Amino acid sequence: MRTQVAIVGAGPAGLLLSHLLGLEGVDSVLLERQTAEYVQARIRAGILEAGTVELLRNVGLGDRLDAEGMEHRGIHLQWPGNRHHLDFVDLTGRSVTVYGQTEVTKDLMAAREKAGRPAFYSVSDVELHDVTGSPSVSFVDADGRAQRIDADVVVGCDGFHGPSRSFMPRQKVWERTYPFAWLGVLADVAPSTDELIYAWHPDGFAMHSMRSPHVSRFYLQVAPDEDIARWSDDRIWTALSERLGVPGWTLHTGPITEKSVLPMRSFVTTPMRHGNLYLAGDAAHIVPPTGAKGLNLAVADVALLSTALTTSFQGDDGLVDAYSDAALQRVWRCTHFSWWMTSMLHRHGDDFDAQLQLSQLQRTVTSEAASTELANNYAGLPL
Ligand code: RFL
Ligand code: PHB
Questions:
Q1: Most informative mutation of 43, 47, 205, 296 for ligand 2 (most atoms within 8 A of CB)
Q2: Structurally, how many domains does the chain consist of?
Q3: Which has more confidence, 33 or 381?
Q4: Among candidates 316, 297, 333, 273, which has minimal Cα distance to 132?
Q5: What is the CATH number of the domain that holds 137?
Q6: What is the mean pLDDT of residues 201-228?
Q7: Could you tell me if 205 and 281 are in contact, meaning their C-beta atoms sit under 8 angstroms apart?
Q8: Which residues are catalytic?
Q9: Are 254 and 358 in the same domain?
């Protein structure tokens, strides 16, 4: 088989890249380790930046997003006894939209099927060959047959655990692990808040997010090696009520439909290109979820890369040559913001650290310069 762009990984980065290239008349083939159903059901990110929403609309993926996405003007930032609303629209003119990664993925899969763009699901033994010359990708398909795709370019959109990165020699890695994790909870209950709540608490960070007018999403700071069996539904609701509580506010409870422990890390590998092999999304960088950047960063990478590859196929290599440096500027900005939000809101260190965090929170909600800085980063830099 032959294609212009072989894409390893059909998560949001791979699917969107294939969609954007298709609109420009560039052929691609997607290879995915999991089944389509598995990829679609994975519960992950929930917040889209203003620029991500605009891009999805501009490429024909806005119908359900506009009908079902919930536009939020900002977030609530809180610590015991204090809840402050930061209005991003007032501060920056931009909003964010609650629309789950499951929904974005569903829309991208439907668009792929409609356009008839090829994808192989449930593949194994993916290997990349001759990435600095005439690249190809070998793999075993769902029926156990050995296959090979020759391509002009290979893009690794295969997430943090994917194999693509290992075919790049001389990679430099920057990494930070955090001494805590998140317990993520999905519940069939109407949100008890109009917009997301990020809460600092002596017992640890807590967050109230949502997926729809009937489904709420919550997170609790826990130990990195937390045993989920120790978290009964009752214990979860008690901890959430305690950590998210402010006088005069009630947390509504309901059936918990999913709970899992999510590790937290910051990770960046550079460069994001080696010859004819490019990386995009979580394959190249991971951020802790506190700033809601992971999915948006994957979208920003492929927006840049699709234009770069399209112009390269037209004979101009300027943008592909600039891709890694250009993508990494945004990656490092989002890496800093995610690290900063994480450090400010999670309980770690001693009482001195706690006082510094509370001072930073106070400053963030009372200084217009500080609130605007948070709002600009959260609502997202222009694509
Ligand atoms: P993905 O979504 O991980 O997709 C990569 C795809 O590559 C496939 N793959 C392979 N395919 C073929 N051959 C192989 N050998 C392969 N190995 C792997 C995988 O099956 C998968 O389908 O990366 P992508 O597309 O770059 O998208 C990035 C986003 O998914 C990610 O940044 C966010 O989901 C991060 N993230 C969150 N971000 C937020 O902003 N808010 C959140 O609440 C949030 N929660 C999360 C998350 C990431 C998680 N992961 C990765 C553990 C929760 C979790 C559990
Ligand atoms: C989510 O809804 O899953 C979510 C929202 C904001 C974050 C992280 C996760 O910062």
A1: 47
A2: 2
A3: 33
A4: 273
A5: 3.50.50.60
A6: 97
A7: no
A8: 72, 198, 289, 293, 378
A9: yes
Among protein residues, the one with the nearest Cα to ligand 1's atom 32 is 294
Is there a single domain that holds both residue 317 and residue 358? no
Per residue in 153-164, pLDDT (tens digit) is 999 999 999 999
Question: Using CB atoms within 10 A of its CB, is residue 380 exposed (0-12), middle (13-18) or buried (19+)?
Answer: buried
pLDDT at 383: 86
Pocket test for ligand 1, best of 52, 282, 297 (most atoms within 8 A of CB): 282
Q: Write out the residue range of the structural domain in which residue 63 sits.
A: 2-70+97-175+265-343
CB atoms under 10 Å from CB of 93, counted, come to 10
| Geometric angle at alpha carbon 177, from 233 and 374, rounded to 5° | 80
**Ligand 1 atom 45 nearest Cα:** 44
Q: For ligand 2, what atom is nearest to the CA of residue 217?
A: 2
Distance CA 39, CA 105 (A): 8
Entry pTM: 0.97
Tokens of 359: 């001072």
Let me know if 102 is exposed, middle or buried by CB neighbors in 10 A (0-12, 13-18, 19+): middle
